[in-house]
Amino acid sequence: MNQRQIEVFHAVMLNQTASRAAEVLRISQPAVSKAVQELERSVGFALFDRIKGRMVPTPEGQLLFREVAQSFLGMVQLRNAAARIRDFGTGELRIASLSALSTTLLPMGLRGFQLQHPDVAITYQARMSSEVRELMATGQFDLGLAADEIDVTAVDAKPFGKVRAMLAVPPGHPLADKREVRPKDLNGVPFIALAPEDTTRREADAILRAQGVQPRLVLETPFSITVCAMALAGLGCGLVNPLTARGFVNQGLALRPFVPAVHFRTLILFPTSRRPSRIVRDCVGHLQRAARELDMILP
To answer: How far apart are CA 285 and CA 139, in angstroms?
Structure first.
């Protein structure tokens, strides 16, 4: 007994004639008859009575078919399971991002994703960009968004988008009266800076140095949201990601364009140990749509 003989037997039982079974299996009718005869010799009993050109199952053939049908049902279930795994992975999505995107881009993108895939369980963590990169490099998470200052070795990193940095200005500050802020306006001004490794800070520092401008540094932090909170409290001004600042503007924080423009650049990260599943690819699509709605500049 072999798999091919069982397949032929199954086809004959469903189609009732050897000729029709041969058409379905795309083999010759003699090949069907031969396979059935070999299976009968193997099991030791007749499977069909040949009556007027038709193959009528014997009682023993009917009993064997019940078992075969269960086997074929199991194969169908296995194929369906394999298709689900191929298309949707595990049914779980693990995503991490820098905190600047946790209150705007991620809620918008994940809402659209959830509507498309309501049964997918989502795990989300807001982390520092270096930690997001580590989660991707070790394969613990499926998708990450990080600032572009990270080391991209051991991860699959691609540009995701960028947004123009804005200057966060305390309520009532003289710079709040300006339509835009230039480097000379910041000379000697109390300033809240991002972390030294931040590429946006390095870009702005180069512009300030080139023009001989030196703000008075009062605080350093890696988080735009902290810059916003400190600026709102009156500690000073600072460059921020405007996506983070939205909630603070309603409280009185002023945002002014910094000229020349500098940008926050975001990378999208994947583990190198596996290809993105369909649900990961779908999530990326929703995040990109959310980014366009937020006026991020996409590649």
So the answer is: 21
pTM above 0.85, yes or no: no
- Taking the C-alpha atoms of residue 168 and residue 170, their distance in angstroms, rounded to an integer, is 7
Q: What percentage of the chain exceeds 70 in pLDDT?
A: 97
DSSP H or E segment with residue 218: strand 216-221
Count of Cβ atoms closer than 10 Å to residue 176 Cβ: 17
Q: Is the dihedral of CA 92, 98, 100, 101 positive or negative?
A: negative
Residue-wise pLDDT tens digits, 26-39: 999 899 889 989 98
Query: Residue 273 is part of a domain; what is its CATH number?
Result: 3.40.190.10
Distance between CA 66 and CA 19 in Å, rounded?
22
Structure tokens at 184: 């000379």
Q: Which domain holds residue 279?
A: 93-158+268-293
- CATH number, domain containing residue 17: 1.10.10.10
Query: Any idea which of 26-35, 160-169, 195-204 has the lowest mean pLDDT?
Result: 26-35
- Using an 8 Å Cβ cutoff, are 156 and 272 in contact? yes
Phi, psi at residue 256, to the nearest 5°? -130, 140
Check whether residue 65 and residue 34 sit in a common domain. Answer: yes
Q: Work out how many domains the chain is built from and give that number.
A: 3
SS3 content of the chain, % helix, strand, coil (to 5): 50, 25, 30
Q: Concatenated DSSP letters for 196-207?
A: TT-HHHHHHHHH
pLDDT at residue number 51: 80
